[in-house]
Amino acid sequence: EPLPPPLPKKQLQRAESLPEPGPSRRCHGEPEPRAGSVLYSTPPAQLRLGEGDPPRDRRSWAPKKPLSKSQSLGEWPARSSPQKARSPSLKELTFGTADGELGQLLESPAGLCGVVLGCQEASLARLSAHMQEELAGPEERQQLLQAQLAGKRWAALAVLDPRPCCQSGDAWYFRVGFTLEHSQLQFAAKVPKPCCSSLAVQSSLGTHCSIQRLLGHFTDRLPPELVLPGIPGKQSQGLSGEEPACPGPQPILQVLLCAEVPQQTLADFVKSSHALHRTSPGHYERLGCLLLLQLCMGLEHLRGQNMAQGDLCPENLLLVQCPCATRSQQGQKEPPGLSLPRLLISSFFKVQEQQRPRSSCQEQDWRQALAAPSPPAAAELSVGRLIYQILHVDISLENILGFESKRLPEIPSLSIYSAGLRRLATLLLHRDPHQRVSVEQARGILQVLLWGPRQELFARSRKSLVLLRNWLEVKRALLLLRFAESWAGARVSPGLEEWLCCQYFQGVTEHTLYQVTQVLYA
């Protein structure tokens, strides 16, 4: 039989030819690579990620889509909807990600640096979410507890202590227990003082680590074993020095069930920490910065929902004990009593839509805002006063109204935080509203005071966005390494301070750092 005619030779385009093998370094014993083997083959130029056009036959290069109900086997997807190979998201990358997907990212315009930095930011976001769940508890469990407590009253609760565990300016708190799924949970029963209830507002607030969480509420007669110390509304005396209320039938009162059990108020903490401030000023003032930071974050959350703190004073700010590491972030052992508590805002009110018109006199507006603690415009001034109170510097309302803006009480320089807190207090209490910093700006200043960049960074190099960006990228990498080393070494679980630090480095940019350092180090 005659042989079939030979097939025509395919003409290879130059772009599709294999590269010439050049001199290479091979380890002894390795096989000689052949032309056309995987070791030497390279993809055509037009097939590299992000370069050129795709091949003419798009169907052969597009990823196979799952068949829809209207498609049968053998049918191709419509040519009008081609798909490119999906690049993995930086949030989805893990150590076990396939090398093929990693290769796509490394060939992208961002390159190696962009991939590494993106992975760091995504990792910080995941760590922050995990820490928040550890601190506040899983949201699903809170919802289950709320459903179980619906309609329950005192009879369904176990009173763990007949005396209040904490008394704030507007409520008494009792420690109670409730059995859920064969385990007893502890939370707080909040009994508001007369004319101090903010149930309607509090029940509509979103979840935040600095906002008191409401699990339920009811109205019932107070159990006979519970003691309401002192005269309702009287706040000047402590729990130990107060006489119980007159015996008689227990009143019917509104009760709010709160997830967190407060151990004391900020006023109690400041009053009992004079000695600690003298013996460990650095630790104490850092703790003060962290408490103020939590307050500012909570106030930001309230403003986003058109709410405000009721009476922003130390007596109405609650402190809740939370699990913490045995060592501080600097790696030093914390003195007794200096573990960081959670700060909670516990009283609220709805901000009116129409604000009071401003007068033409800045001095009059400043005095009215100081004298009326409720309006949201007074939040910055109240936070400024809190700085002095936390640092044990007397600055009562009567005294502050008599000071000029440049003659505020002097804050002694006891630690590396003193000058920054003095600067922040001056900016918050400035008479000119255009010169006064906002709560959001105060939060940024506190974060820089706690975690940098410090002024010494600019001693050898002029401050620039490039310098701040490089500093930020290095600090993020070092922070992740610290978490890994802490877990591998002492197996210390991240605590509240680590979560606050993650929140900072997760969202801050070099532009924000430039603006904050301009104000702080002016």
Keywords:
522 residues; Transferase(Phosphotransferase), domain 1; 16 helices; alpha+beta; three-stranded antiparallel sheet; 11 strands; six-stranded antiparallel sheet; Phosphorylase Kinase, domain 1
Walk me through the structure.
Helix 3 (111-136) packs across helix 14, helix 3 (111-136) runs antiparallel to helix 15 and helix 8 runs antiparallel to helix 13. This protein has 522 residues and is of the alpha+beta class. It is built from 16 helices and 11 strands. Strand 2 and strand 3 form a beta hairpin. The N and C termini lie far apart (98 Å). Strands 1, 2, 3, 4, 5 and 6 form a 6-stranded antiparallel β-sheet that branches. It has a 3-stranded antiparallel β-sheet with strand order 7-9-10. Residues 12-85, 231-241, 325-330 and 352-357 have low confidence and may be disordered. It has helices spanning 58-61, 99-106, 111-136, 139-149, 199-202, 266-271, 274-279, 281-304, 362-371, 379-390, 397-400, 418-428, 439-451, 465-489, 496-507, 510-520, and strands at 158-159, 166-167, 171-180, 183-192, 214-221, 252-258, 264-265, 307-309, 317-320, 342-345, 348-350. Among the domains are: 150-233 and 249-262, 2-Layer Sandwich (Phosphorylase Kinase, domain 1); 263-328 and 338-350 and 365-451, Orthogonal Bundle (Transferase(Phosphotransferase), domain 1), CATH 1.10.510.10. Residues 50-60 have a biased composition (Basic and acidic residues). Belongs to the protein kinase superfamily. GO terms for molecular function: protein kinase activity. This is PRAG1 kinase. InterPro entries: Kinase-like_dom_sf (IPR011009), MitoQC_Scaffold_Kinases (IPR051511).
